[in-house]
Design goal:
Layout lengths: L1 E2 L2 E4 L7 E4 L6 H10 L8 E4 L10 H8 L4 E3 L3 H9 L7 H9 L6 H4 L3 H11 L5 E4 L6 E4 L9 H10 L2 H9 L12 E5 L13 E4 L6 E2 H4 L15
Parallel strand pairs: 2-6, 3-4, 4-5, 7-8, 8-9
Antiparallel strand pairs: 1-2, 3-10, 6-7
Helix pairs in contact: 2-6, 7-8
Length: about 240
């Protein structure tokens, strides 16, 4: 169930949990990766912590991805900026073309879509939580795009998100979390940014490298370090 920006899920005792970083519009490759691991939506789950759209992304594929059973994604700053763009209603084609010319979040893909597609996409984005907590008693793992306010534990952070506290929302969308230990959670998975020092840390924050590559969360629980992938894009 979703609770004011936070989605709570039980532990998966019947299948596998996978994670993916910055998808960047590569949905065709991502769907193939799901086929390669025999992803079963009745048993398995996929958590996305990165940007979904970029470049010549297909809005239809993105909407299909978000509507896939057992696929869960946290909101990133890119998606939030798209939602903000539609806050007072759909922008006209002239405004969208201007944003595309500025390469605002790579919005050439938005200019190439119809108004219905744009509206459907934004409606899907508005349903995304800022954070996901998974666990039966307490929280075993947490998922957020960017990070937490420095020094805050997971429960304090998610409580702030449910209340809509600005410093928690801002941290979730835009503030990198480095090598400090987050209390109240075994691991926190975030989207990798190349501005970080890549020296492995003993902290329990795990940056997930970008790319349409599925990784088993159980494999990543053992070692809180960067998982290699293609060249990263900044948050």
């Amino acid at each position: 169930m979703a609770s004011s920006n936070v989605l709570y899920l039980p532990s998966n005792r019947v299948g596998r949990d996978f994670i993916v970083g910055d998808v960047g519009g590569a949905f065709d490759q991502l769907f193939r990766a799901m086929q390669d691991v025999d992803f079963d939506p009745n048993r398995d789950r996929l958590i996305s912590v990165g940007h979904l759209l970029a470049g010549q992304a297909s809005l239809t594929s993105c909407i299909r991805f978000l509507r896939t059973p057992s696929v869960f994604a946290v909101l990133s700053n890119g998606e939030q900026d798209l939602i903000d763009l539609f806050a007072e209603g759909p922008p006209d084609d002239e405004a969208v073309e201007a944003l595309a010319a500025l390469d605002y979040h790579g919005m050439t893909w938005l200019a190439g879509a119809g108004q219905l597609q744009r509206t459907q996409l934004v409606a899907a984005m508005r349903l995304l939580p800022l954070a996901i907590s998974i666990g039966d008693v307490g929280t075993a793992t947490g998922y957020v795009h960017a990070g937490l306010p420095q020094g805050e534990g997971w429960e304090e952070f998610t409580t702030g998100l449910r209340r809509g506290e600005d410093h928690c929302v801002s941290a979730a969308l835009r503030e990198m979390t480095g090598g400090h230990q987050v209390s109240g959670v075994e691991r926190v998975f975030v989207c990798y940014t190349p501005d970080w020092d890549l020296t492995p840390s003993h902290a329990n924050i795990v940056p997930v490298a970008p790319g349409p590559v599925l990784r088993l969360i159980s494999d990543m629980m053992a070692a809180p370090k960067l998982v290699e992938g293609r060249e990263a894009a900044k948050i």
